[in-house]
Design brief:
Chain lengths: 72, 519
């Protein structure tokens, strides 16, 4: 191993956070125009917002992995 | 094109193109390594850090064709084309969790392709061959489609230097661009697209930034842009009773595309060229910046509708030749001053060269490792191996070029659609294989065969016009991306047959990898 010689892959509960982005597959929830944001229909800004949420979720898992010394 | 030549735009375009050509050749000396070894030529020596990998993967995954076709889909079909955004959201958790394992085991065992891994993990050269061939076949039309991106902008610039040979009209600028690409690829290997990707991305981000500021200002804000879109195109149509309608198609297209993406050889090449598993994880965090850009680019389809380029006589020829794919070039020509048009078009054309280069290198790696070395010359030297790869990369590019010149554009689009259905069938061996070797190699092979044949059959039942095949589940019509339903069948067959084969076959199967190779 180049990066972390003695780390072991181990599942931890917070890894489940990475399943949350799959919520973007629940189309009926966001297939509407209201409420609009600065003229942009809900359908569009909601999905764009999930890009930011996904980054934050991966970042959280990445940090926690480093702290606990586990990784996938 | 009836459009007059645009000297300013053409000069900017040509200057940027010349600049990246020089970079492509200079790249051979960058992070210097012995280019007579396959992992040096074909994986850049596995030495790319977080920043270079970010540009390389970005250039690799968000291709010029994406930048032309996604807004074209939004322009033509409306909200349905926006599935590219949930697709791009889902790929990053998948990259973060699964693919550091592939990097680790490949680094430890010297694997250059996904098929190398499957060969080592399951000890089956037949299964490895199936994975390699699927990858090569799925990639070829993808390369051809990159050429469509270049073709569209060259036509939009009004450069029509063509020659007639054997009944074909050959676009000389296109051929010229590809010959340059082939030359620096041959010399520098993966280092060339990695270096050029940085220029390409700077141009792309500059263009996107200009688009999201300039065009909404011209049109009086985003509210006006969306107001110009017909209500039926603004969101997905409400499903008719007894059917899930466009909504299940949207969700399965996003899911299937996301699952398929990292199985493509060019994605694997991009991942394996990074210098460590941490690099991959950090990129899973940083890469979504491209998803934002893509979402904004998708909205260019609506901007083109709002501006009304489709009805403008000066673009009529372009739309006749390229259909909705001309929407973005027409929008840029209409809204931007000539020099900015030159920058934006160069971004698209260079954005086609980067993935085309990586795709042909990835196919060459597959052929060399999993066909040439495996079946024809097992004792080949490192130098022979990398020479074969270099030559194959030329053949693959020539193939793509002939394909796009000799066949209607629609063939490449259909084959790319089929390519997605085919490549996802390697998911069980490659992605699940990273976690378990419970699956029996022959079960995986038969599952793969089932998936490929039913997927192809579904696409043919739709006359290859769409990939959304309607399933009937307990009386409800469920339009579903054929790749996903075929994968489900593949999984079922692989599980059932693995149960049987594992029961019948006694003795242990060869697995050259160890549990600690993956972490």
């Amino acid at each position: 191993m180049v990066d972390h010689p003695r780390k072991r892959a181990r599942f931890r509960a917070y890894h489940l956070l990475l399943l949350l982005p799959f919520a973007v597959l629940l189309v009926p929830f966001y297939n509407r125009t209201e409420p609009t944001l600065a003229g942009v229909p809900f359908f569009y800004w909601y999905q764009m917002a999930w890009i930011a949420i996904t980054v934050i979720l991966i970042l959280i898992v990445y940090w926690l992995d480093r702290r606990t010394g586990s990784g996938s | 094109m009836t459009r007059a030549l645009n000297p300013v735009a053409i000069s900017v375009f040509v200057a940027l193109f010349a600049f990246v050509t020089v970079l492509g050749f200079v790249a051979a000396r960058w992070k210097r390594g012995d280019l007579g070894k396959l992992h040096e030529w074909g994986l850049g020596g596995r030495r790319f850090g977080t920043v270079v990998s970010w540009f390389l993967l970005g250039g690799d995954l968000y291709t010029a064709y994406t930048f032309v076709a996604v807004p074209a889909l939004v322009f033509g079909a409306g909200a349905a084309g926006f599935f590219a955004v949930p697709y791009c959201i889902l790929i990053w958790p998948i990259l973060f969790v699964v693919f550091p394992r592939l990097w680790s085991v490949s680094h430890r065992r010297g694997y250059v392709t996904a098929a190398d891994f499957v060969r080592g993990r399951f000890g089956s050269r037949t299964l490895a061959l199936a994975i390699a061939v699927t990858g090569m076949v799925a990639t070829m039309p993808y390369i051809a489609l990159q050429l469509v991106g270049i073709e569209v902008v060259i036509a939009a610039l009004g450069l029509h230097l063509s020659a007639n040979a054997a009944g074909l009209t050959i676009q000389l600028p296109l051929v010229f661009a590809f010959m340059i690409l082939a030359a620096y690829d041959y010399t520098s290997g993966l280092r060339a697209p990695a270096m050029i990707a940085m220029v390409k991305d700077i141009l792309i981000y500059a263009t996107v930034l200009a688009v999201i500021i300039v065009i909404p200002v011209q049109l009086g804000g985003y509210g006006h842009i969306f107001a110009a879109v017909a209500p039926a195109k603004l969101i997905l149509l409400a499903p008719p009773s007894g059917s899930l309608g466009a909504q299940s198609a949207y969700a399965t297209l996003a899911l299937g595309s996301a699952l398929a993406l990292f199985l493509y050889p060019h994605s694997v090449t991009g991942i394996l060229s990074s210098s460590g598993r941490e690099v991959i994880k950090r990129n899973a965090i940083a890469m979504p910046a491209y998803a934002v850009a893509l979402g904004l680019i998708a909205l260019m389809g609506f901007m083109a509708l709002a501006v009304g380029v489709g009805a403008m006589p000066e673009y009529a020829n372009g739309f006749r030749a390229f259909g909705p794919n001309f929407a973005v070039p027409a929008l840029l020509l209409h809204s931007f001053p000539p020099w900015m048009v030159g920058v934006a078009f160069a971004a698209i054309a260079i954005g086609a060269l980067v993935p085309a280069a990586i795709m042909s290198i990835a196919s060459a790696n597959l052929f060399t490792r999993n066909i040439y070395k495996e079946y024809f010359n097992p004792g080949c030297t490192d130098a022979q191996e990398s020479r074969v790869a270099k030559i194959v990369s030329l053949i693959v590019k020539a193939g793509g070029l002939i394909f796009i010149l000799g066949f209607p554009q629609n063939y490449a689009i259909v084959l790319q659609l089929l390519g997605g259905i085919w490549i996802i069938q390697t998911l069980l061996a490659v992605m699940l294989g990273l976690y378990t070797r419970w699956f029996h190699p022959w079960a995986l092979l038969l599952g793969w065969l089932t998936g490929i044949s039913t997927g192809t059959w579904m696409a043919s039942a739709l006359s290859f016009k769409s990939a959304t095949y309607v399933l009937h589940i307990f009386g409800t019509a469920v339009p579903c991306y054929a790749a996903v339903s075929a994968l489900a069948l593949n999984l079922a067959v692989s599980v059932v047959l693995s149960l049987v084969f594992n029961l019948v076959s006694r003795g242990t199967r060869a697995d050259e990898t160890l549990a600690e190779d993956y972490v």
